[in-house]
Amino acid sequence: MLRGENGAGKSTLLRMIAGLNEPTEGKILIYGTPNTKARHNMGYMAHAPLLYDELSGMENLRFFAQLYSITSDELLARAMERVGLDPKLERRIGQYSQGMRQRLSLARAIFHDPRLLLLDEPFSNVDPDSALQIAQLLADMRSSGTTILLVTHQAGLLAKLADEYVLLSHGQLVSRGPMAEVQQ
Amino acid sequence: MKADAIKAATETPAVNMSFTRLAWINVAKDLRLEWRSRDVFNSMMFFALVVVVVFSFAFERDESKPVMGGLIWVAFLFSTTMALNQSWARELRNGVLDAYRVSPAPAEALFLGKVVGNFILVSLLECLMAPLFVVFYNLTSVGPLWQLILVALLGTWALVVNGTFFAAMSIRTRNRELMLPLLLLPISIPAVLSMVTGTSQVLSGEGSPIVQLKFLAGFCVIFTTACFLLFETVLNAE
Amino acid sequence: MKNKLFLAFAALACLLLAFGTYEALVVAPTEETMGDVQRIFYVHVPAATVGFTMFFVNFIASLLYLWKRSARADALAAASAEVGVVFCSVVLITGPIWARYAWGVWWSAWDMRLNTTLMLWLLYVSYLILRRSSTAGSTSMLASALAVFAFLDVPIVYMANRWFRTHHPAPMIGTPNLDPRMQNILFINMIAFLIFGSLIAWFRYEMERTAQTIDAAHIQRAAGGAVGMMAVPAMFLAAPTHVNPHAYLWGGYLAAWGIYLGYLLFLMAKLGRLKKEAAELGR
After folding, report:
1. pLDDT tens per residue across span A20-73
2. Which CATH number fits the domain that encloses residue A13?
């Protein structure tokens, strides 16, 4: 879990790991591979939905899946069900509720079963029930081996689930350690 | 467990999408999006119509014969600029561009898809506008039609490929809509000059446009290469 | 910033410029057909040389930046483009002044060289505008890409002008048969202006480096900048009746030096602001 006050650089750090911003110095390696070469194993979710308003849920996922060389509709349908959406819904996502859009955005980040998941405020604007479901989904993914880097202001939700926390301030790493320390 | 994770993280998927297929997916997606909202095409069409009408008032029919080549292309140039301004707007609206950049798909496929999509759109516009011009100006072509079509194709590609590239550049500037024509027009002056000369030559039958065609072809090759080589840099300039 | 080498070159430039200008205005033989106004040529052609050289430097610096991502390359690209535009503006102003006297027209649509220079001017002004309008982190990359495009366009523009306009008569502001004495004086002036231009570019480069360290994104630019706005007084529109050739000659020289000095003043003002901002940041 990445924590820090506004402007500390949490989103920027996530974006750098995702390969969207270039670091001014140094390189980013994921298990020894440069991050730009490990894209097929990364999932990224941001404030913005990162989806096309005029397409339906499945159409959106199909498009993005093809970018990852995935053509199986089943996989996408399963991803949608995991986040609690109906894959047969033909409605354009521009007419989805905010919570549904967040879920679809998450589906977009996880359908290819990435080893590394980068989430920037996944719980903002989401109702408490959805938030709980998403938290549970994340916990499941964590148990099956996915590393999750999370930025959120709602630490309470994940207090039991997160392993480690990292505290940033003014663009610098201030401290890190096991979650248990945060409770104190 | 750790060894498994490392292995999973570094192996690449067995199936890899071919470049052309990726580009085609982008084109299909753009066309489908455009079909569902039709905002770009409608405004482009209307703008082109307005330009044709204004020109027909501003220039008397007979005296404008020699400058006909120029007029058609000026009208197309304006409409194309309008269309290109919109070309990346959809990607920016919900931050979709980021999702594309995070995926393993190469940036050049996105660019090719965009250029082809824009090319189709602009060509459609030209096909619809050309009859209007013929009607308003009583155009007849003395030279062979295929030359005219070739000039139009090459010229359109030249404009669209540079236009899509500069539109992508303008994304990261303060006054987006203004930057595109500002960057595009100076660079395209040789191509526009060539198109105008070529069109006039075919329409009036004086002189052969072969030189223009060769020039346009060279222009297209050089700048298409430059665009493809530099697109990734421009896309990731953050 | 201003070290001994710079001062030495500045002294040399002043000497050469003074000598070159004296030669051009006094010693050089008067041209038969065009008279004294032809002496603008000694300012016009060197300006073009410096301008094109600067644009070439910009191209190389941009390629370097694309390859190595070096901040110094980017600073050089910015400096050379700006100085190039200044000298290009001088070409575009002295050319028509000369042409108006010599051929009665301000601009000849068929003059290859003037057209090429105008195109270049447009291209590099758009480059400068891109540098100013782009968001902070992306400027260097976008500008380098544009510089490559602009320079690729140069030979294309040249060829376009050659192929598509040659069937029209070309009253070029050219250099037909040159008296060898004129050639020497031209050469001296070219060297003088090259050193002058390089010094300005060097100065501008250092300023850009300073600006980079202060995070130049927040510096307010002066409105108008180095590119002079050309207002067209009514007198320019009237045909020349009682023509005084010297008025045109002095007009040309004044315009050129006015632009150079104006640009230098602009740089001084900018330097003052940079220093103030650096002082505020405590560096």
Report:
1. 887 767 777 776 677 777 788 888 888 888 888 888 888 888 888 888 888 888
2. 3.40.50.300
All residues of chain B having their beta carbon less than 8 Å from the beta carbon of residue A115 are 5, 8-9
d(CA B161, CA B111): 9
Total of domains in chain A: 1
Residue-wise pLDDT tens digits, B90-148: 888 888 888 888 888 888 888 999 999 899 988 888 888 888 777 777 777 777 888 88
Backbone angles phi, psi at C62, to 5 degrees: -65, -40
- Residues, chain B: 238
> Does residue C236 fall inside a structural domain?
no
CA atoms of B88 and B24, how far apart (whole Å): 17
Using alpha carbons, list the distances in angstroms from residue C275 to A67, B91, C2, C131: 50, 42, 14, 22
Is C237 part of a structural domain of the chain?
Answer: no
The reply to whether residue C130 touches residue B169, judged by beta carbons under 8 angstroms, is: yes
- The domain of C104 spans 4-166+178-216+242-280
| All structural domains of chain B with their residue ranges | 17-235
**pTM of the predicted model over 0.90:** no
Q: Which residue of B has its CA nearest to A55?
A: B33
Structural domain containing residue A52: 2-183
User: Which DSSP category does A23 fall into?
Assistant: -
Number of domains in chain C: 1
Please report whether residue C224 resides in a domain.
no
Nearest to A51 among B21, B96, B102 (CB): B96
pLDDT tens track for C115-151: 778 888 999 999 999 988 888 778 888 999 999 999 9
Report which secondary-structure segment, H or E, holds B153: helix B145-170
Interface predicted TM-score of the whole assembly (ipTM), two decimals = 0.81
